[in-house]
């Protein structure tokens, strides 16, 4: 009967999937990859120019049969290949259209996501385009070197380079590999020259410039003259003079700059491109045989379209990004009558962000207590409590805006009076509990009535009502493990229910994670609502409710923190194939981190813990406090938890 009633409601409701797309701004951040089907379920189309769709709910059902525990990170590896192709084809198109007399090379900075499967997929998809890699540490260099099967595959080496790292780079060049150390500081240049002399092999290298142009968006401060790395113009000129004196100026092959992550303004990109191109031309005229111009990373993606001074939206697409760089460099080179260089970009976020989706189940909801059924009027003895009850009764008959506003003010006043009376001991806890229920029920009635009024601007009272009636939604995940960028810098990630999107989400929610930290919640959401501090969410029903956290593929995989010893979540690696059931097949599943692994990381060794626990149980048995059979049962249950995963075990419930 309940299902029939829900079906009838859906038929008569004016809400449809178009409204959900608008509400969650899906078409602003989903690119061509994510949409909603007629069932109201989230779908993914992982391949460029291929409309084959996968219902994410079908994947969940498949993984549940495999007993893979929630939360689960879904990696759509075809999206990585699609992004590799999309970026490279955009530059090919720009080069052809501009009649640019050189080529383009995409390198992937593995710091964005070092997971081996991600790097392998990008390299495999990039074979046609000869995609290279970028590393920024000694460990990353060790990982990248072993993937240089082709001598043409480029490896750009950024970041601080100690003697061990510099020696590995020189060894790679001696092996004939195209590995380019980017000099960030004068002392790094001196160390490289000394090591080259010692090994009797002077390596090729590049120079990183501090541009006067400053980036735009959240990471603007990471660029410009105050950026963390890079050489000033006088420092570059001193290196040029020194290389001439040493007779090694021919080893300078590359100039590099970084305008900042998530460049929001295309004009900033154009200005920076022209500045670095001008430096390229000037250095060429001084005798440096530079062949590569690396404009670094920064190609932005839209996490949302809610503009603010800190999170401006991206005002360009992939093709415009490529055009700006290609045409900008060509214009400057033509004006200086200098041959154009090979262009390099390091677009890591744009490559990886779309490919992973975190699926999180809702465990429970905390809502304001409302009246449910019979009211014990025998408790309504206090004058203030009686007045509050009368306000509640009267609200049922009100409809005019002014009347509703007045009723809200009166209800707030009486509720405050009752809380003061309770503190002073004039009313008991049962009366206080009933007063809370009456007040919250009155607020719910008022908000429902306000929402039915047409052409109503949101006044402060309505904003207050929405705020105090927002639910707390407990979810099975850790912000610190899976969304560190959100906790640390307030990055908003699109979050959307993966089903029921043909129904109107009539509740407001704030998502809470499993950690005991008060910061363990999502405090910023992507939606069409004026207030970004909550997520529109559906009413509870008898089915388990899942939320999808999107654009999770950049940085968060690598930066996760083990707060409360919550470990990595389970993963499923998925490929699209229309010949398979549901249009997908699962290449690999990876169980989430178990408890004993997390304990080992912080030097709590399972064997020691088990001995200690066994000693405690035996002591209680010997003292006669528990029976031996119960002690054995308790100890065995303790042992079983070591192989359990760190997240919640929960069954289907009416959430």
Description of the structure:
The structure is a single chain. This protein has 655 residues and is an alpha/beta fold. The chain has 4 domains: 1-90 and 354-361 and 472-592, Lyase, Ornithine Decarboxylase, Chain A, domain 1 (Beta Barrel); 101-346, TIM Barrel (Alpha-Beta Barrel), CATH 3.20.20; 377-467, Methane Monooxygenase Hydroxylase, Chain G, domain 1 (Up-down Bundle), CATH 1.20.58; 597-643. It is 42% helix and 15% strand. It is built from 23 helices and 20 strands. The strands form 3 sheets. Strands 4, 13, 14, 15, 16, 17, 18, 19 and 20 form a 9-stranded mixed sheet that branches. It has an 8-stranded parallel β-barrel with strand order 5-6-7-8-9-10-11-12, surrounded by 6 helices. Helix 5 runs parallel beside helix 12 (318-336). It is globular. The chain starts with a helix and ends in a 15-residue tail after the last helix. The model is unreliable at 1-12 (pLDDT under 50).
């Amino acid at each position: 009967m309940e299902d029939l009633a829900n079906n009838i409601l859906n038929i008569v409701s004016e809400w449809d999937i178009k409204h959900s797309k608008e509400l969650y701004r899906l078409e602003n951040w989903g690119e061509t990859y994510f949409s909603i089907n007629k069932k109201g379920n989230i779908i993914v189309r992982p391949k460029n120019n291929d409309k084959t769709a996968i219902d994410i709910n079908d994947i969940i059902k498949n993984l549940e049969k495999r007993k893979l525990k929630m939360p689960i990170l879904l990696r759509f590896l075809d999206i990585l290949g699609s992004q590799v192709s999309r970026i490279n084809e955009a530059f090919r198109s720009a080069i052809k259209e501009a009649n640019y007399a050189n080529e383009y090379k995409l390198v992937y900075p593995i710091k964005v996501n070092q997971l081996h499967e991600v790097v392998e997929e990008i390299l495999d998809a990039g074979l046609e385009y000869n995609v290279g890699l970028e590393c920024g540490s000694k460990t990353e260099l060790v990982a990248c070197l072993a993937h240089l099967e082709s001598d043409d595959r480029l490896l750009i080496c950024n970041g601080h380079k100690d003697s061990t790292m510099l020696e590995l780079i020189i060894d790679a060049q001696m092996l004939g590999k195209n590995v380019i150390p980017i000099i960030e500081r004068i002392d790094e240049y001196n160390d490289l020259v000394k090591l080259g002399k010692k090994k009797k092999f002077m390596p090729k290298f590049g120079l990183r410039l501090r541009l006067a142009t400053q980036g735009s968006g959240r990471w603007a401060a990471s660029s410009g003259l105050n950026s963390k790395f890079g050489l000033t113009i006088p420092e570059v000129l001193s290196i040029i003079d020194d290389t001439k004196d040493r007779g090694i100026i021919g080893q300078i092959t590359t100039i590099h700059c970084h305008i900042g992550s998530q460049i929001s303004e295309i004009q900033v990109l154009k200005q920076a491109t022209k500045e670095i191109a001008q430096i390229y031309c000037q250095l060429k005229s001084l005798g440096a045989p530079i062949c590569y111009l690396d404009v670094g990373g920064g190609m932005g993606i839209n996490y949302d379209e809610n503009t603010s001074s800190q999170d401006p939206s991206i005002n360009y697409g992939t093709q415009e990004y490529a055009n700006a760089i290609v045409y900008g460099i060509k214009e400057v080179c033509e004006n200086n009558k200098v041959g154009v260089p090979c262009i390099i970009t390091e677009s890591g976020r744009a490559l990886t962000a779309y490919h992973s989706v975190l699926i999180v189940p809702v465990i429970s909801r905390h809502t304001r207590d409302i009246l449910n059924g019979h009211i014990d009027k025998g408790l309504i003895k206090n004058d203030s409590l009686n007045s509050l009850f009368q306000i509640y009764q009267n609200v049922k008959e009100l409809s005019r805006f002014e009347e509703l506003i007045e009723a809200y003010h009166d209800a707030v006043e009486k509720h405050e009076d009752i809380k003061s009376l309770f503190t002073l001991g004039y009313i008991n806890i049962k009366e206080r509990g009933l007063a809370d229920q009456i007040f919250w029920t009155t607020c719910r009635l008022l908000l429902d009535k306000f929402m039915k009024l047409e052409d109503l601007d949101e006044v402060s009272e309505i904003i207050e009502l929405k705020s105090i009636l927002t639910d707390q939604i407990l979810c099975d995940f850790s912000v610190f493990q899976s969304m560190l960028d959100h906790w640390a810098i307030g990055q908003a990630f699109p979050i959307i229910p993966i089903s029921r999107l043909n129904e109107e989400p009539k509740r407001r929610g704030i998502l809470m994670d499993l950690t005991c930290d008060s910061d363990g919640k999502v405090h910023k959401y992507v939606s069409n609502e004026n207030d970004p501090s909550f997520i529109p969410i559906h009413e509870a029903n008898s089915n388990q409710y899942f939320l999808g956290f999107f654009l999770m593929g950049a940085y968060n995989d690598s930066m996760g923190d083990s707060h409360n010893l919550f470990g990595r979540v389970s993963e499923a690696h998925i490929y699209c194939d229309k010949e398979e059931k549901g249009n997908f097949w699962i290449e690999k599943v990876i169980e989430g981190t178990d408890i004993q692994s997390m304990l080992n990381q912080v030097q709590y060794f399972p064997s020691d813990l088990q001995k200690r626990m066994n000693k405690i149980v035996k002591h209680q048995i010997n003292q006669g406090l528990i029976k031996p059979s119960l002690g054995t049962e308790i100890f065995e249950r303790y042992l079983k938890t070591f192989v359990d995963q760190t997240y919640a075990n929960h069954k289907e419930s009416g959430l």
